[in-house]
Write a structure and sequence with these properties.
- With about 425 residues, the chain is of the alpha/beta class.
- The protein has 12 helices and 20 strands.
- The strands form 6 sheets. It has an 8-stranded parallel barrel, surrounded by 7 helices. The protein has a 4-stranded antiparallel beta sheet with strand order 5-6-14-11, with no helix packed on it. The protein has a two-stranded antiparallel ribbon with strand order 1-2.
- The chain is globular and about 80 Å long.
- The termini are far apart.
Length: about 425
């Protein structure tokens, strides 16, 4: 049976599944329920200076898929609304009761060195395993000069990270905001400040929808609203891309990464790990389905690793990074063509409609005597875009088959069709 335990930035954990800093990690009661369910670690909900933050009522909204499942989740909740002393005492108690679990303390304070120095000394006394610097919160706190307001300025990221390394012996994880042009810039700054790891992504600025009767965005607070932080399955592709950018950037390659964003099952976690993550953090899925989802996550990951012959997490960690590259480095001579399995085709015509209306007119339709239609690929027109495969409602009915052209590898910078090619 595969060993799914990890050591992340010097922090040991029985499995890579951690709860992210959020409502599920707000207090000892929640955290201990999570540990009882089997979570390997938690990042305690972000602590701030006293007096504690005050939240509004009506805090969440969501987008749903066609099956009624939450595909995107939006929140306008702030950091902890409990005092620093209460949180620190609970962290101390929980760590004593659960010494084998990773317990990370998330922090957000103004960019004042003395305030960071003071809180770091207090956190260190709790016995916590590490700290996470919340430089990503996109709502409420940036208006006060914290959260994403810090994470969007690499110089601030490096400065505060440096303070934390100076005044604390605990591993420092820097949580990055996705609300930035180039995620590599704050990651490089974090590394420059001495960060032991980075975590990403935090939530994305969003408005999930408008109530057309009340003419206000959701969630509605007394007729008004504001942008919030977007998370859940819909943000996973963005998170994977940003994780890959840091993993393959020569200036940040090798820095431990805790992957966050849309992780709801073991396969999601495996994808983040394949792109270089050493741990993963979960929030939305736990809020929607409860803490027990971790049981299937652990079993599923372990079983998959067994099926692939991976004995430990590091056996496949980062294996997808070398295969993730810039567009200009892709093989221009590689070609795939769609193929329709006529035995599986139900004749719905979705592939034809999509290709005929919006793509390359590479599917023909033939009316049969029994009143049904037969669809065939016109290979000369097919560019291998995958649209027909994506729209087909039947698994493996349409596949993309490689058509070797017998030509050597040639990327765009070598392609004679490129007027700026490298000769």
């Amino acid at each position: 049976m595969a060993d799914i335990s990890i050591e992340f930035a010097g922090i040991k954990s029985p499995n890579p599944f951690w709860l992210a800093s959020a409502p599920p990690t707000d207090k000892a009661y929640n955290v201990e329920r999570a540990f009882e369910a089997g979570w390997g670690g938690v990042v305690w909900k972000t602590l701030g200076e006293d007096p504690a933050a005050v939240n509004v009522s009506s805090r969440y909204s969501a987008l749903y898929d066609h099956n009624g499942e939450v595909s995107g989740f939006n929140n306008i909740e702030l950091i902890t609304d409990r005092s620093l002393a209460v949180n620190l005492q609970e962290i101390t108690d929980v760590k004593k009761r659960w010494p084998d679990r990773a317990l990370i303390v998330s922090l957000m304070f103004p960019c004042e060195e003395e305030k960071w120095k003071t809180v770091l000394e207090l956190v260190e006394k709790t016995g916590a395993d590490g700290i996470e610097l919340n430089f990503g919160c996109p709502h409420g706190m940036p208006e006060r000069g914290m959260g994403a307001a810090v994470g969007q300025v690499p110089e601030y990221v490096q400065m505060v990270t440096g303070w934390c390394k100076q005044y604390s012996t605990l591993p420092v994880i820097v949580k990055l905001t996705p609300n930035i042009t180039d995620i590599r810039m704050p990651a490089r700054a974090a590394k420059g400040g001495g960060a032991d790891a980075v975590s990403l992504i935090n939530t994305i600025n969003s408005i999930t929808g408008i109530d057309l009767d009340k003419m206000a965005a959701r969630p509605i607070v007394d007729g008004k609203s504001t942008h919030g932080g977007y998370c859940g399955p819909a943000v996973k592709p963005i998170a994977l891309s940003m994780v890959s950018e840091i993993a393959r950037d020569p200036e940040t390659a090798g820095i431990p990464i805790s992957g966050i964003g849309g992780i709801g099952e073991w396969r999601d976690a495996a994808e983040f790990i394949a792109l270089g993550a050493g741990s993963v953090q979960v929030c939305t899925a736990a809020m929607i389905y409860g803490f027990n989802i971790v049981k299937e996550m652990k079993t599923g990951l372990s079983n998959w690793m067994d099926s692939k012959g991976y004995e430990k997490i590091t056996d496949f960690q980062g294996l997808a990074v070398p295969n993730t590259t810039d567009w200009k480095k892709l093989n221009m001579n590689y070609k795939v063509v769609a193929d329709i399995d006529q035995d599986k085709c139900i004749g719905c015509g979705r592939c034809y409609q999509a290709c005929e209306d919006t793509s390359h007119q590479a599917i023909s339709v033939t009316s049969l005597d029994d009143g049904t239609n037969k669809f065939d690929i016109i290979e000369d027109n097919c560019v291998g875009c995958n649209l027909c495969e994506i729209t087909c409602p039947v698994d493996d009915c349409i596949t993309m088959d490689e058509r070797s052209q017998g030509q050597p590898f040639m990327n765009w910078m070598e392609d004679p069709r490129n007027p700026y090619r490298e000769v």
